Amino acid sequence: MAPMGIRLSPLGVAVFCLLGVGVIYHLYAGVISSRLAAFRSDSGLSFRRTVDMRDLLAVSVEAAVLGGKEVKTVREENNLKEKSKGKTREGASEPLTLGDLQSHRKMFNLIKNTFPDITVNSEEHDNVVDKVTWSRDIPGDILDKIVGGKEVPTESVTVWIDPLDATQEYTENLVKYVTTMVCVAVDGKPVIGVIHQPFTAFTAWGFVGQGSNIRPRSSYSISPPKVIVSRSHSGKVKNFIQDAFGNGTTIIPAGGAGYKVLSLLEMPASETASTDQADVYIHITFIKKWDICAGAALLKTLGGQMTTLKGEDIDYSDTPLNKGGLVASVGVDHKAVLERLPNWDPEKH
């Protein structure tokens, strides 16, 4: 009898080969993965997520406009549901309205849903999750002026949003002062600023080193200047400003930090009649960074500055409170303004 042999079908051979290749692949992949992890650990390197800054600008504009629609609707329906968050350091009541909350929910969730890895700081807080998503639309004026592809690591980005700036004025129906704002800081420096006026639908934006849809006015003066200040602290700041620039200085009390920054700029003809014009913006007490970051970025884009009363840069990567007061200007000698200010410590007043 002839010896029997083992026969393998073509299918069996194929299966055997595939299993072998699979085992070898997983062993090889495991070795490569371990070596990459060891390399990253030894070298201090890591694979980082990044965000395109033009996309982030477009989302910031969309968020500010979306929040503004909520603010306007609540005010027009007279459904404010006003309550108090407490008192400021100076003893003024801090109102909270449905407009603040509805705007926060849209703005915060739109940005976080689009860029979940970045830090977003908002003036308001709640646990309501809104599934709002970015339209993927980039406005034409942004496409015309801003080049895409400028990527930054997400861990270097901090976004500050103010869902409703000038809430006190909002409750008094002084709506010209009301804005919604978004600011993007990179490594603590303000880079993108968006200030939206819900009741006129005007949106100002700026991207440092890239461009803006707004510009400074053609002329300013600091001899003496028109100084715009908070209407809630007008008594103390009046003496401060007159000591700096003289009794003939024009002092403009106004609500909202966003509005005050816009008062330094050339507004569209349709907005000019409802916006004050100032040469310098000064604040002499504590102020939150979601109030001022967008304005700081906008002014910096246009060659202006926003500093503490002592001329220090403000870090927008850390705690929300700015304790140094502020001086904001564009189109004037910022250092010359600072040199005329009397010695003042906001922490003692």
Automatic annotation (TrEMBL):
Enzyme class: hydrolase
Record keywords, A-Z: Hydrolase, Magnesium, Membrane, Metal-binding, Transmembrane, Transmembrane helix
CDD domains: IPPase (cd01640)
Region (Disordered): 76-96
Keyword Magnesium: yes
GO CC, alphabetical: Golgi apparatus; membrane
Reaction it catalyzes: a myo-inositol phosphate + H2O = myo-inositol + phosphate
UniProt-listed Enzyme Commission number(s): 3.1.3.25
Membrane topology, as annotated: Single-pass membrane protein
Cofactor: Mg(2+)
Annotated pathway: Polyol metabolism; myo-inositol biosynthesis; myo-inositol from D-glucose 6-phosphate: step 2/2
Main location, first listed in the record: membrane
Alphabetical GO biological process terms: phosphatidylinositol phosphate biosynthetic process
Binding site residues for Mg(2+): 123, 162, 164-165, 291
SUPFAM superfamilies documented for this protein: Carbohydrate phosphatase
Spans traversing the lipid bilayer: none
Subcellular location: Membrane
Comp. bias intervals (Basic and acidic residues): 76-92
Gene Ontology MF terms: 3'-nucleotidase activity; inositol monophosphate phosphatase activity; metal ion binding
Classification via PANTHER family: 3'(2'),5'-BISPHOSPHATE NUCLEOTIDASE 1, INOSITOL MONOPHOSPHATASE 3
Similarity-based family: Belongs to the inositol monophosphatase superfamily.
Name used for this protein in its record: inositol-phosphate phosphatase
Taxonomic lineage: Eukaryota, Metazoa, Chordata, Craniata, Vertebrata
